[in-house]
């Protein structure tokens, strides 16, 4: 008997059931199995039980052995273009779903249907993947929306908002573009626009003479309204923080800024420092103070005597 090369199993891999049809009764039925649910047959091959028909001799596709052989030997892409192309592999192979880095249910891939499709570098491959998945049980998720979901999940889990800084900047820029379009609509159509007067869902009409047959003629009543784009532009400006006080351009904000500058200049002069040196040292001191507070809280939480004292106080309150 030929010696079978031992290949360590993956955390999860594909299996094929020869007895079950795939999606829409076309092709083979593919399913995933975790490492602890796999078995080996007499030939040393990995087998699993079909979740639909219960067939206990479902085998892996031929390419899964090649995937296992590559474990630990990957060099990965070297160029930035290669790294950008491979950074979404976890979404297509499913490894990111298993590790919990991203949720299991994500928006499906819909080429050219999402706004993100306009700037997606994987659009052609997405179209091909969706076409190949037709008639099978494969699920193709949208890379861009999956990436956005993973970014927000990571920011919330780690408590680090830096990962969302570029996203916030992009949203701010898009809001600015929408605001520009609102202003363009105002300039093109005017501050006031004419529209039909409506009452109870019906257009209000006015009698306007008669025709040759003696029938009454009616005309629609028009009313002059302020351009609705003005209100939309004002809302966008408020959301973006475009106010004179925020930029210290109002008299009151100018006075507050001058008073603060004068106070800082006086404090810096008293210590024989320039304004820049004083502010730099002040920021360092505040950072050290914040770190000391955090360290103090951690020490207090781990102090056994303090824990016992708090427990006694709580017990006394409960007895009252």
Q: Count the strands?
A: 11
Separate helix tally? 11
Distance between the termini: 81 Å
Instruction: Please write the string of helix (H) and strand (E) elements.
Output: EEEEEHHHHHHHEEEEEEHHHH
Oligomer: single chain
What's the mean pLDDT score? 75
Strand content: 15-25%
Q: Quick one: overall form?
A: flat
> Which percent bin holds the helix content?
40-55%
Q: What strand order characterises the main sheet? A: 3-4-5
Main pleated-sheet profile? 3 strands, antiparallel
Question: How would you explain this protein's 3D organization?
Answer:
- The chain is flat.
- Among the domains are: 12-69, no CATH class; 90-159, no CATH class; 167-209 and 217-240, no CATH class.
- The longest helix has 27 residues, at 275-301.
- β7 and β8 (202-203) form a beta hairpin.
- Strands 3-4-5 form a three-stranded antiparallel β-sheet, with no helix packed on it.
- It contains eleven helices and eleven strands.
- The protein has 320 residues and is of the alpha+beta class.
- α7 runs antiparallel to α8 and α9 crosses α10.
């Amino acid at each position: 008997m030929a010696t079978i090369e031992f290949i360590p199993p993956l955390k999860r891999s594909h299996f094929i059931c020869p007895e079950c049809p795939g999606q829409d009764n076309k092709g083979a039925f593919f399913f995933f199995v975790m490492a602890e649910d796999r078995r080996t047959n007499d030939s040393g091959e990995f087998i699993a039980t079909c979740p639909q028909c219960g067939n206990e001799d479902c085998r892996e596709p031929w390419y899964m052995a090649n995937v296992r052989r590559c474990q630990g030997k990957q060099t990965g892409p070297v160029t930035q273009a290669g790294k950008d192309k491979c950074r979404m592999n976890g979404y297509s192979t499913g490894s990111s779903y298993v590790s919990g880095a991203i949720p299991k249910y994500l928006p499906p891939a819909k080429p050219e249907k999402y706004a993100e499709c306009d700037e997606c570098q994987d659009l052609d491959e997405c179209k091909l993947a969706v076409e190949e998945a037709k008639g099978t049980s494969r699920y193709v998720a949208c890379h861009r929306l999956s990436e956005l979901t993973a970014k927000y999940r990571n920011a919330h889990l780690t408590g680090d908002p830096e990962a969302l800084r570029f996203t916030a900047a992009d949203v701010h820029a898009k809001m600015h573009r929408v605001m520009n379009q609102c202003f363009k609509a105002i300039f093109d159509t005017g501050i006031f626009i004419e529209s039909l007067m409506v009452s109870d869902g019906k257009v209000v009409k006015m009698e306007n003479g008669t025709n040759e047959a003696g029938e009454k003629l009616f005309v629609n009543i028009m009313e002059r309204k302020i351009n609705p784009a003005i209100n939309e532009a004002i809302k966008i400006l408020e959301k973006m923080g475009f106010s004179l006080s925020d930029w210290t351009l109002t008299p009151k904000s100018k006075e507050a800024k001058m008073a603060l500058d004068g106070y800082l200049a006086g404090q810096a002069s008293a210590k024989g420092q320039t304004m820049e040196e004083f502010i730099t040292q002040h920021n360092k001191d505040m950072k050290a103070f914040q770190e000391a507070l955090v360290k103090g809280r951690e020490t207090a939480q781990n102090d056994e005597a303090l824990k016992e004292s708090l427990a006694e106080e709580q017990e006394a309150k409960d007895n009252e």
